Amino acid sequence: MMIQRPRRLRVTQSIRDMTSETRLSPSMLVYPVFVREGKNIIEDIPAMPGQKRYSPDTLPVILERAVKNRIGGVLLFGIPEHKDAEGSSAWREDGVIQTALRTAKKEFPSLTLIADVCLCEYTSHGHCGLLKGETVDNDSTLEILARTALSQAQAGADIVAPSDMMDGHTHAIREALDAEGMTDTLIMSYAVKYASAFYGPFREAAGSAPSFGDRKTYQMNPRNVREAVKEALLDVSEGSDIIIVKPGMPYLDVLKTVKNAVNVPVASYCVSGEYSMIKAACANGWLNEKNVAGESAICLARGGADIIITYYALELSEWIKEGSL
Ligand code: PBG
């Protein structure tokens, strides 16, 4: 019988790198950016230190860094001046996101532009869809979402990313895009989005907190994982090209399960609360930022993420290129 030798190999860094099961590359990283209506604005977001809101005219400052680092793409969130019950600023041809997309496409034609499709930043009540009484009405919202996605595609979005969690959103958007000849626009849908407390800082950044109630009727229950598979398969069958699982680190089991269930690329969204927790601990000197942000991205990749949407995308790509990650 073979006697097992106790493992006492001490490998070099180069062998460690060569034999790694998981690798990170800038091309798998997507950087979320907040764009607000107005001119000449670059402002801090207090709950997300290091992140800023840009107006469409100052946006090139940050997009240039994204292009230089060759990241996979940017995900744009719009913050309008005017909000109403229907979220009508979401689909205006001269809306904030449409203007930003046109500028970005013209200045950086090689950069992949992803547009968030949702109404919560645009509605006066802060919910992700149209209200009937105090509840969100799924079916009448679909038409508005489709109109919004179409206007974004026409303004230059390569990918539209519906984050509203209405049932049937992918189908409605695909039909609207195809009917207008936008057949090459991809849909990256938030098929698996939990009603999570980790979105807190984002709602401050985007001014999108609901004015009453919560999103538990349309976002998922953190206790469920089979439901995630159901939602993901449904979205794929409706035509989603990429599936998002959100949040990131606390939902690694969901990520892995969904990854094994679908045959399209899966993106993990490492959300605002995850970012701000790392930032806060590092500001206190309790954690090392590069090591912790790097490890959390590696863990998401190991957990099955083909794409990682993260507020650390620019720093991560710089650390990868330096060889320190
Ligand atoms: C809009 C939307 C949210 C996030 C992305 N799109 C907030 C929410 O659902 O309340 C959260 C992203 C983050 O926390 O980084 N529906």
Name its key features.
alpha/beta; binds ligand PBG; globular; 38% helix; eight-stranded parallel barrel; TIM Barrel; 325 residues
> Which ligands accompany this protein?
ligand PBG
- Indicate the overall shape: globular
| Unreliable stretches | none
| Strands in their spatial order, largest beta sheet | 1-4-5-8-9-10-11-12
**What is the structural class?**
alpha/beta
Compute the average pLDDT: 94
SSE pattern: HEEEHEHEEEHEHEHHEHEHHEH
CATH-defined fold name: TIM Barrel
What is the C-alpha radius of gyration, as a whole number of Å? 20 Å
At CATH level 2, the architecture is: Alpha-Beta Barrel
By CATH's scheme, which homologous superfamily applies?
Aldolase class I
Largest sheet properties? 8 strands, parallel, barrel
What separation lies between the terminal Cα atoms?
A: 42 Å
Provide an overview of this structure:
The chain has a single domain (22-321), classed as Aldolase class I (TIM Barrel, Alpha-Beta Barrel). Helix 3 (96-107) runs parallel beside helix 4 (138-155), helix 4 (138-155) packs across helix 5 (169-179) and helix 7 (226-238) crosses helix 8 (252-261). The termini are far apart. The mean pLDDT is 94. The chain is built from 11 helices and 12 strands. It is α/β, with parallel strands linked by helices and 325 residues long. Strands 1-4-5-8-9-10-11-12 form an 8-stranded parallel β-barrel, surrounded by 9 helices. It has a two-stranded antiparallel ribbon with strand order 6-7. The chain has helices at residues 13-18, 60-68, 96-107, 138-155, 169-179, 200-206, 226-238, 252-261, 272-283, 289-302, 313-322, and strands at residues 29-36, 42-44, 52-54, 73-79, 113-117, 131-132, 135-136, 159-162, 186-193, 242-246, 266-270, 307-310. The structure holds ligand PBG. Residues 116, 118, 120, 128, 163, 199, 202-203, 215, 271-272 line the site of ligand PBG.
